[in-house]
Design brief:
Number of strands: 20
Domain Gem-associated protein 5 first beta-propeller: 144-200
Keywords: Repeat, WD repeat
Order of helices and strands: EEEEEEEEEEEEEEEEEEEE
WD repeats: 95-137, 212-238
Radius of gyration: 19 Å
Protein name: Gem-associated protein 5 first beta-propeller domain-containing protein
Strand content: 35-45%
Number of helices: 0
InterPro entries: Beta-prop_GEMI5_1st, Gemin-5, WD40/YVTN_repeat-like_dom_sf, WD40_repeat_CS, WD40_repeat_dom_sf, WD40_rpt
Length: 261
């Protein structure tokens, strides 16, 4: 007899409520619980649930591949952030430093004991697990909606705000703002760093990104996707999300005018 698992629906309107690592392990928040699957097998295998949160899960991040134990960090709208073992489901670390609802979460792949989280009051909390050290910053006014550690530096975090502003913050230097990227008009809903170095962005089939700088992609509620030069602090290209029934049309990427109609 074939077993069939019908998982609960992930929580809505949370940009970081699902995460998957390179081994195929998938974690997502549903109501106040975090469910884990192994998607490397088919059909996916249900690995269990972590249920020590008391409020709605708002963000989830799996640990880097070489972290000391298989772990997951989860945050909820009550302001609590927890790190737990994905095999035993045992709680390992937690803090309740946030004064608002946690909306974003990122685990550094460069410094593997470093986690950053943000809330709807604009507070950024940097948590170093090994030393149990916590620092808080408020680099920009407005609520934080999503954030992402740079894959090249443990110091640089991209922070997206409900105002449409993206701020690059150095969390090793008292939350110093490195760049402020303006262009979006509404909530920043997604931030993704390019996995390779270079900012020579083109639309060619075999791109050559060069060796200087790092690209960042952002998606917003304003229905645009933008590619940014983080070293120069400027937009390189723009794409508009199509309406139902629309089609993609390449534009002049050098002028940042790639359009979707």
């Amino acid at each position: 007899m074939t077993e069939l698992t019908l998982p609960p629906s992930p929580n809505w309107y949370c940009p970081k409520v699902i995460d998957m690592d390179s081994t195929g392990k998938l974690a997502f928040g549903a109501r106040q619980d975090v469910h884990i699957f192994n998607t490397a097998d088919f059909p996916p295998i249900y690995l269990g649930v972590f249920g020590l949160h008391r409020d709605r899960i708002s963000a989830v991040a799996l640990c880097p591949p070489h972290y000391s134990s298989p772990s997951c960090c989860s945050a909820s709208e009550d302001g609590k952030v927890k790190v737990w073992n994905t095999e035993t489901k045992a709680l390992q670390h937690e803090h309740n430093t946030h004064n608002g609802k946690v909306t974003g979460l990122s685990w550094s792949s460069v410094q593997e004991d470093l986690i950053v989280s943000g809330d709807d009051k604009g507070e950024l909390v940097v948590w170093q697990l090994n030393d149990a050290r916590i620092q808080t910053y408020c680099p920009e006014k407005g609520g934080i909606f999503c954030l992402a550690f740079s894959p090249f530096s443990a110091a640089c975090v991209a922070v997206g705000y409900r105002t449409g502003v993206i701020v690059l913050v150095d969390v090793k230097k008292e939350g110093t703002i490195l760049q402020r990227l303006r262009g979006h008009d509404e909530d920043i809903q997604s931030l993704v760093w390019c996995p390779v170095t270079g900012e020579d962005f083109t639309m060619k089939d075999t791109p050559n990104f060069g060796v200087e700088g790092h690209l960042l992609a952002s998606g917003s509620r304003d229905r645009t996707i933008r590619i940014w030069s983080t070293s120069k602090g400027r937009q390189l290209s723009l794409f508009r999300v199509p309406k139902p029934g629309g089609y993609f049309q390449r534009g002049d990427q050098d002028a940042g005018r790639g359009k979707i109609k």
